[in-house]
Design brief:
There is one protein chain. The protein contains 9 helices and no strands. The chain is rod-shaped, with a radius of gyration of 38 Å. Helix content is 72%, strand content 0%.
Amino acid sequence: MFRTILKLVVVSAIVALASAAFAQQNAAPGTQPAPAASQPAPQGAPPFATAPQTPASAPASAQSAPADVSADSTGTAARPVAFQVPREMSPWSMFMSADIIVKAVMVGLAFASLVTWTAFIAKSFELSIAQRKLKSQLKKINDARSLAEAQMTLGKKTGVLSSFIAAAIHEARLSAGIASDTGIKERAALSFAEISRAAARRIRFGMGVLATIGATSPFVGLFGTVWGIMNSFIGISKSQTTNLAVVAPGIAEALLATAIGLVAAIPAVIIYNHFARGTKTYLELVSRASGAAARLLSRDIDRVNSGVMHSRAAAE
């Protein structure tokens, strides 16, 4: 069940990312800046005017031009320098304006967070169902007197306890005619240990992913932050300005990677510790089931030995 849910989530995440990229590619372009107002053509000077126009007659708008406007060698005013600053400092706008490496880091961390919550939901159902099923089976065989009676009580139900009882019956059948009771119990205990290890591997499946996400996500986010800040400083050196409006967006985009890394790592660590405690409780129930099957096997062996002794006494 856990593997199936994880596959569905991976496919859904890939489809969602592809749809978002396609929508972003086909989105309408942003509002273009208004074109500069065309200056009216200078009126022709009268034929008798030969003196050049004095600076005092320059338009008032030229005198109040901003300091950022630069002039070329011909004396004509150049267009003001336009900096690529996001229109709004929302997480989505910062993501879209980030570098491709930072984008890849953010997408990977978002996918890791999705896997974390998927594992939490799937493992919660799996662990709860397994514990409830095993408790119910242990309650049913509490009054069973033999392995055969316990097997009949459980019926065709599958589970760890059914595997223990089937292994005990199989070992007792194979060891028929052997006088050593200790050897039968030891061989059955080895079979129980194998079943217990298989149950532990099955219930712990997926917890390694949570541990990996919790341990590596902060460092992956830090890598994205370092890369983004490096690109920000390169942009500052190219623009030759230390204006906060130019510097802040790039640094904010870089810090967003660290924030997403923490968002992915903190729940992963908490969920891993939660499942570690739940798994320990389930393995204790598995140990109780192993002990119950061992007790039933011991009763059957003693019952068989007692019948053999009574037969010998009657024969004598």
